[in-house]
Amino acid sequence: MTFFRYSADRLPYALFASYFALDVALFFTVDNLWAPPIIFVIGFFPKAFICAFNHHHQHLPTFYQPVLNRLAEIMFGFQTGIGPYAWYLHHSRGHHEHYLDQTKDESAWMRKDGSTMGEFEYTINVAATAYWRAYKRGDDLPKKQAAFVAMNSLMLALVVGAFVYNWYNALFMVLLPMVASLLITVWVTYYHHRGLDTGDHFSGSYNITTPLFNTLTGNLGYHTAHHYRPGVHWSKLPELHEKIKDKIPAHCYRDGAVLGGLVARRRAKKERERRRKERRRNPGVAAPVGARSDDSERLAA
Ligand SMILES: [Zn+2]
Questions:
Q1: pLDDT given at position 40
Q2: What was the pLDDT predicted at 287?
Q3: Does pTM surpass 0.85?
C-alpha cells in the first residue's frame, strides 16, 4: 500500500512525527516549573519551519488516505496553531484567489487608504482574524466549512482536555506554542507580497532562492512559482521556477533576506529616521519625485 503521494515527504514527515511524539511524551512526563517554558522557547524555530510544510499540505494533501491527512492536520494544528482546513480556507481558497486584489485578500498588507501596513500591524490584524476569515471563506464552500468547524472543535476539545489534565504543561507546551507559531507564521508571510500592488502573478510575490532557506521551508522561497501553480508539489517548485524565472522582475527577489535582510532592514529604518529628522529640520525641502516612505525598505527587501 502506498501512503505518500511524493517520496520527498517521507523524511520531513518522519521528523515532524518524531518531534510531535517527543512533545506528547514530554507533556505527560515533565513535572517541574522550569522545563515547560524552556521547551516552549526551543520550539519557536523548528515549529516555524513545520508551518511551511503544513501550508504545503493544505495545497496538496500529503497522503492518499484521507484519515492520514486528517491525523497529520491534527499534529500540525498542535505544532503550528493552524488547525485542519484553516490553511485551506484562509490561504489556498482565500489568499491565493484574492492576493492580487487587496480589498479581498485574507492576508491583505494594504490598508483601506492604499498605504502599506507595518509588519506588527499586519501580523496582529491577520492573526487575530485568521480563524474568522477562514470560516467566512467557507460560506460558499459548505462541506469544507463544516469539516473546518468539526475538526477544529475536536482540536479545541483536545486543548481543553490538556488543560484539565495539567494546566501548567498545557499552557507552556500546548497553548502558547500554538499562539506563538501562528503569530510567527503570519509575520513571515508579510514579506511574501507586501508593497507589490499589481494584477500580475509574475510581479506579485517576493522570492528567496537561498538553498538553506528552501531546504528548511520546502522551497517556499520560490513564491512566484507557488502562486503561479499552487497545486504543484513543493519538491517540484525549483523546476517550475526555472521555467518562469525570465518573467520575474529583479525587484521580486529577496535573496540574502534571511540574515542579511535583518541588517539591511535596520539600516533602512535608520535611513528613514534620518530623512524624517532632516525633513523636520528643513520642512520646505520636498521629497524627491516618486519617493515613498518605504522606498528604502523596498530596496532592502
Ligand atoms: Zn500558498
A1: 96
A2: 44
A3: no
pLDDT digits (tens, 9 = 90+) for 93-129: 999 999 999 899 888 899 999 999 999 999 999 999 9
CA of 36 to the centre of ligand 1 (A): 32
- Same domain, yes or no, for 68 and 146? yes
Same domain membership, residue 124 and residue 32: yes
Domain end marker among 167, 197, 227: 197
Looking at the structure, tell me whether residues 15 and 104 fall in a common domain.
yes
On whether residue 193 sits in a domain, the answer given is yes
> Do residue 184 and residue 278 come from a single domain?
no
Q: How remote is the CA of residue 279 from the centroid of ligand 1, in Å?
A: 41
Strand, coil or helix: 214: helix
pLDDT in tens, 40-53: 999 988 999 999 99
Per-residue cell: 161? 482536555
- Between the CA of 127 and the centroid of ligand 1 the distance, in Å, is 16
Evaluate whether residue 215 is within a structural domain.
no
Distance 201 CA to ligand 1 centre (A): 13
Counting Cβ atoms within 10 Å, is residue 111 exposed (0-12), middle (13-18) or buried (19+)? middle
Output the CA 131–ligand 1 centroid distance in Å.
17
Residue 301: its pLDDT value, please? Answer: 33
Residue in the block written with cell 528567496:
208
- Cα of 135 vs centre of ligand 1, distance in Å, is 18
Contacts of 85 (CB under 8 A, 6+ apart): 58, 73, 134, 138, 144, 147, 148, 151, 152
Calculate how far, in angstroms, residue 231's C-alpha sits from the geometric centre of ligand 1.
9
Instruction: Look at the chain and report how many structural domains it folds into.
Output: 2
Ligand 1 centroid to Cα of residue 275, in Å, is 37
